[in-house]
Amino acid sequence: MPSTDLADLKAYMADNPGAVIEDVARERKVTPRAVIEALPSAMMRIGGGGHFAAVMQDIAEWGEVTLIVHTDDAIFEFTGPIPAGEIGRGYFNLMQPKGLHGHLRHERCAAVAFIERPFMGKSSAFVAFVNADGGIMFKVFVGRDETRALRGDQLARFRQLADRIAGAPEA
Description:
The protein is α+β, with helices and mostly antiparallel strands. Helices cover 30% and strands 33% of the residues.
């Protein structure tokens, strides 16, 4: 991406940090990863995709979260606990017979982004699994309590995981 386009994208995301990542990517003809990387540095940290299984195993201990898959044709949301998984036969397999289950192509994960930003007037925090093409495989959002505030226990786990996978936040 030319430096002027990158500077423009960074300026846009600084002014609109709650913009829908996939919409900005489509409108500006860039990858969702480019949009994530254009967020203010205090709002995002990125670690390597090789941490996919470790991140998923940690998230499996958080309790009820919301997993979102956003495609050009639909936005799927699942709210509930993420099951533990294991690698086998080329996939990261979510190991439960009902609810959320399936087989994830973990080797296509090129990065794991940890994002904390405002969204629709509220604080949000989520993990975005970014594929080798710069697209978002799926996102896992920190859950909310009965007052719609981020769950403190999960936010603490999110931040600890981000520190471990992507390094400490910039000061």
